[in-house]
Amino acid sequence: MQEGREVPLEFASKKFTDAERKWDTRERELFAVKWAVEKWCDYVALHHCTVRADHADLLYLVGVDKGKVFRWALALSRLNFTLEFLSGEE
After folding, report:
1. How confident is the model at residue 1, as a pLDDT?
2. What's the whole-model pTM score?
3. CA distances (Å), 88 to each of 11, 53, 55, 81, 85, in order?
4. Domain Reverse transcriptase RNase H-like: where (predicted)?
């Protein structure tokens, strides 16, 4: 926080591969969160972080019990962060 408001520490982007582009939206959104959390794992490992995403389905990954989405959710569950929904308008 800076002067009472949140400010980004860093920006990053990644282009999906041809195979990744074929995934459904939930898979791409979760992969993006996983990629970002892994990219900034030093921050996440040392401090609680909040990830804000505009894809509400990410909040309901608890029920996933197989496949790559399950593996990603399991890997993310070991890290110290909270996932919050942020509407696209915000």
Report:
1. 57
2. 0.74
3. 18, 8, 8, 21, 9
4. 2-78
